[in-house]
Q: What sequence folds into this?
């Protein structure tokens, strides 16, 4: 069983990798080296997300609560899924002017 500490450690390592990428950019490292590290962080985040989901599914199976919502750890009560927001033609940020 995956512990919360293990999951937190994975995210902490990702955080360190992202900080390292920032330093690489600051120091003018080669683009190929920076992109290689970006890909590494992306895979590390995917692995952390898989571990988090696996732990959640395991906990739900042990509790026998098949309706356990994925929002359990974010303090939100289980409930129906919300539809995605509708796309709009306005600016991405309210203070930006639309691009012609």
A:
């Amino acid at each position: 069983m995956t512990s919360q500490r293990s999951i937190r450690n994975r995210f902490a390592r990702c955080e360190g990798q992202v900080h390292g990428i920032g330093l690489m950019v600051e120091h003018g490292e080669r683009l190929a080296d920076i992109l290689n590290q970006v890909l590494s962080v992306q895979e590390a985040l995917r692995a952390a997300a898989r571990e988090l989901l696996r732990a959640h599914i395991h906990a739900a199976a042990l509790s026998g609560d098949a309706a356990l919502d994925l929002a359990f750890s974010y303090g939100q009560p289980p409930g129906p899924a919300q539809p995605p927001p509708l796309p709009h033609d306005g600016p991405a940020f309210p203070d930006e002017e639309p691009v012609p």
Observations:
- The mean pLDDT is 76.
- Residues 31-63 form the longest helix (33 residues).
- The chain has one domain: 4-74.
